[in-house]
Design a protein that fits this description.
This protein is an alpha+beta fold. It has a domain of 65 residues. It contains 1 helix and 4 strands; from the N terminus they run ββββα. The protein has a 4-stranded mixed beta sheet with strand order 1-2-3-4. A hairpin with an 8-residue loop joins strand 2 and strand 3. The N terminus is likely disordered. One of its GO terms (molecular function) is zinc ion binding. InterPro entries: Znf_GRF. Keywords: Coiled coil, Membrane, Metal-binding, Transmembrane, Transmembrane helix, Zinc, Zinc-finger. Pfam families: Zn_ribbon_GRF.
Length: 148
């Protein structure tokens, strides 16, 4: 069954499916055969095993046409992927720019927090000094009122 006559009118039996067919319209898996006709000697084709020369309802498709369709579809997909990749790179560049801005802003905020912490510690030290002066004054007033 590796060689089947293929003098059939293929236009009536070709599938609407592009690329290398895997199933016939009837649902059966297609096989690949080699033409042994004078018109197409040695040319590969895909055909439903249920089909016959008289039955035009089953799949028949030349393999070289299928391969060309596969390559065309792959090329179209590749072009789309190139565009998508280009858009992705643009998006990544924009995201990196935004990330750098946010990183810079975070660093500014961390520096501001550090300055606030320093000022808070300075205020605490000043409050301790004021507290010590207040306690000292309170003790002096208490001693003055007690001994005077």
């Amino acid at each position: 069954m590796s060689s089947v006559g293929s003098s059939l009118n293929s236009s009536n039996r070709q599938t609407n499916e592009r690329g290398i067919p895997t199933r016939c319209n009837c649902g059966k898996a297609v096989d690949r055969f080699t033409s042994n006709t004078v018109k197409n000697p040695g040319r590969l084709f895909h055909c439903c095993p249920m089909g016959s020369e008289k039955d035009k309802t089953h799949l028949f498709k030349w393999t070289d046409i299928s391969v060309v369709e596969e390559i065309e579809d792959f090329r179209d997909l590749f072009d789309v992927l190139l565009v998508d990749n280009s858009e992705f790179h643009k998006s990544m560049t924009a995201s990196e720019t935004i990330l750098k801005r946010h990183t810079s802003r975070v660093e500014e905020m961390e520096e501001a927090i550090a300055r606030c912490e320093e000022k808070s510690m300075e205020c605490i030290r000043e409050l301790r000094v004021i507290k010590a002066v207040f306690v000292c004054c309170f003790v002096m007033v208490f001693m003055y009122l007690t001994f005077a």
